[in-house]
Amino acid sequence: MQSHCMEAPTTQPSSHQPALADEPIPPPRNRLQRYLTAEPPDTSCPVHPPLILGPGERMAWDMTCDTLVLGFGAAGAAAAIGAREGGDAVVVADRFDGGGATAKSGGVIYAGGTRYQKALGFEDTPTDMFNYLTQEVRGAVSDATLRKFCEDSAGLIEWVASLGADFESTAPPSKTSYPAKHVHLYYSGNEGVPAYAASATPNPRGHRPAGKGMSGAELFEVLKRRVEELDIPVLRQSAARRLIVDADTGRVIGAELWRIPPGSAAARRHDRLIRTAERWHRFAAAYSDRQRKKAFALERRQAKSYRVQATKKVVLTTGGFIFNRQMVGQYAPRFGVSMRLGTTGCDGSGIRLGQSVGGATALMDKVSAWRFINPPAAEAHGVAVNDRGERFCNEEMYGASLGEEIYKQGNGKTWLILDRRLVRRVLKDACFGRLWWFQSMLTLLPFLWVKRGRTPEELARRLGVPPTTLRATLEENNAAAAGTVPDPVGKSSAMRTALSEAPFYALDIGATSYPLPALTLGGLQVNEVSGAVLTGDGRPISGLFAAGRCSAGLCGNGYVSGLSLADCLWTGWRAARAPS
Length: 580
Hints:
Blueprint: E1 6-7, H1 31-36, E2 51-53, E3 63-70, H2 74-85, E4 90-93, H3 100-104, E5 109-110, H4 115-119, H5 126-137, H6 143-162, E6 185-186, H7 194-197, E7 206-207, H8 216-229, E8 234-235, E9 238-246, E10 252-259, H9 265-280, H10 285-302, E11 304-316, H11 325-331, E12 339-340, H12 349-356, E13 361-362, E14 367-369, E15 383-385, H13 399-407, E16 415-419, H14 420-432, H15 437-444, E17 451-453, H16 456-463, H17 467-482, E18 504-508, E19 517-520, E20 523-524, E21 532-534, E22 540-546, H18 563-577
Parallel strand pairs: 2-9, 3-4, 3-11, 4-8, 11-22, 12-19
Antiparallel strand pairs: 1-2, 5-7, 6-7, 9-10, 10-11, 13-20, 14-19, 15-16, 16-18, 17-18, 21-22
Helix pairs in contact: 2-8, 2-18, 5-6, 6-18, 9-10, 14-15, 16-17
């Protein structure tokens, strides 16, 4: 029957996508950065123009369901569970073995007004949560949608807990990039920064499920277990390469997958290659990319066409596009020099599938780049300066906010200035402070390029910044620490520290010594009530929905730890229960 199907012309990205005038960060200058940001091979899932089923034509389907979910991370699992519990026959397809970026994440869910907060003495409200998130979301979604999310968030936590996640915490919450192993509630954003706290009572809203190591794998196991309990078929090693559209109605009625035969030698080798690639990605990116290249070649040789009919809806939940360098170069070239946060499946395939049938995109230039300097907390007591020796941000900000400010500095150059006392505290905490291994590593790494000077002027000359400016910057910081003048960047009084004990040190925390980890935030435009994918003129595409980082959602303009996973779960459930 394939010969009777028409292929629609390839749809170009939406014309309203903003052009980016920003210049990319300069090329890598040292061996480590060149290694970490080497151009990877293109292992993105191919996406073809849709198959259009002409009037009166019939399709030979390999499988039929009510709801087809493409992608099996947090958003995909939530969509599958929601649709099945709503009475639908559901099929899930994933290019790999499931989990996606969720399983590699910290597993944090952002929520307010929960019983876990109340147990530790925090009376959070949807209004306070809304007032805070308004400053982070910055119009990525409407106020009505943001309010709805805030009102639903406590129930979202209860739902995940009902599936088996444990969010109980007896330890007091702290401000950190990621909490200690025994802490399951923490300040995961900028809640305590004075500029944010002025309009919203600070409350810890990062909820992390208990489990061994990072909690993302634990969270996904909880979701996967529920999918299995509901007997939802999961087609693994099945990459969606095109959508299928009914010509009479314009409705998306299914998808063509390219599936490696289950149980075959090719399937076992493909699984080993991808597991190896994901395991070594943080430590040996080039080696990981070679494994991905082998796996992709195997997909091309061994995968067979497999068509799944969806009588109600197709839900796209395949994640963002940070692993697709062509898309990063097209939409967010400034972030070409970055470490890829996510997994091999974050290749924009779901976004491209939506575009192939006329879906519009939004906020595709938005990328969250991270530079965490807490823990150890002593680093946040230092002073961050640009290549002019000037302070430009509050150093106690959340790491994604700091990373965003670093990229705004034009050339990405940023140094963290410390004195001898602070350096001693930093090294002590990094080596003996019971931090996570990655927190210690990220703390110690900048010391490979540390600059030192007996005076601010000597340090400035070694950095190539104006000596008089750096001297004035440190003197102003010291006066603010003494309380004689306001802090110029609004740092809270508890975080102000005079830098006066020589020698002075400069840690390169910019994007020019070692790359900032980054993930993409934009995606398909969707109806904020249903999750239906929209065309450029705002019309819903019949039968097609998107959730998580496939769509432009809560995180579209900025990132807070836990907000992305909360958005994935919330929008996945929304798409599942929306009228088809």
